[in-house]
User: What shape does this take?
Amino acid sequence: MEFIRRLRVPPIDDTLDAALHQKIDQKTKPLGALGQLERLAFQVARIQGSMTPTLKNPYILVFAGDHGVAKSGVSAYPQDVTWQMVHNFLQGGAAINVFARQHNISMRVIDAGVNHEFEDHPQLVKGKIGPGTANFLEQPAMSEELCEKALRLGAAQVDAIAEEGCNVLGFGEMGIGNTSSASMLMSYLLDVPLEHCVGRGTGLSDEQFEHKVKLLQQAAEKYPNLKSPIDILQTFAGFEIVAMVGGILRAAQNRMLVLIDGFIATAAYLAAYKLAPAIGEYAIFCHRSMEQGHQHMLEALKADPILKMDLRLGEGTGCALAYPLLQSSLNFFNEMASFADAGVSEKS
Ligand SMILES: Cc1cc2ncn([C@H]3O[C@H](COP(=O)(O)O)[C@@H](O)[C@H]3O)c2cc1C
Ligand SMILES: O=C(O)c1cccnc1
Assistant: This one.
């Protein structure tokens, strides 16, 4: 696939590492006392190759798409909620709108494949790859051609906001049924049993959850020999998930800071990571979702999520909520006095 053949993620230069550690350790605090904030500041400064890193023009991209599998009763909500929520995002009434407004984060909604025609709106990108995916219980979700189109869609959106001066962006999603897709991706990409990957999504009852597990197990039996990340994406992903994969890859390629939300966004990240492991240095995991598979996925990635707030929403909400802590990490790094500046005695 041309998109994948052209993929080049720059490895991070370590020439500043010693100076960055020294700058952090010289701040007026016991050594290591700002914990994860110190690790975040170090990571961002390395990505930017700068002793004075900054966050510029932050964005949340919310990718939306419908899933054929939603018709098989794997979600607690009807498929129409996908387009209805896109409408809600554009009206400014969803959780992600509220948190993004609170932290001055711009938002864009990408229709990657919702089964609905939307009116024009300044925050909406009309990128529909198709009116939703095929039901993977019956046939692969999409062709290779559409998969590549979706990768390019995500990459193009990231390039567009990079041109607006953005250097930090969060990836969010909306698509009824997409925890099922994400569970399949996780099981295949990590080669772990499906039981560790399936959760209750929007809030399934015990009975509905058993039905979901049974259907997804049938799907796994149908496709025993998938190995490559692209084949796995084509078979199980949604257009919004593949567009996120393309976007995550391009953001790292552009040396932007990549903020990863919950279970579905992390599944997209996982596919991107399998395609280009160098993206690992650009990613910040914003929270640990209640969706059970997310906890296993984060462990497998050795990720250190910023928040544990019992969220299970998606939309990029974890990214928006973690953003002020990321700001705090750079503020301490750029503004805090050193022992020498402040005339404070160092460790004896
Ligand atoms: C009103 C509403 C708003 C949402 N915002 C995000 N999701 C989340 O729930 C969906 C995934 O769960 P499942 O696989 O169980 O369908 C995705 O659309 C996800 O972003 C929502 C779900 C609902 C119902
Ligand atoms: O972790 C998430 O992002 C998530 C969990 C459940 C439903 N929707 C999203």
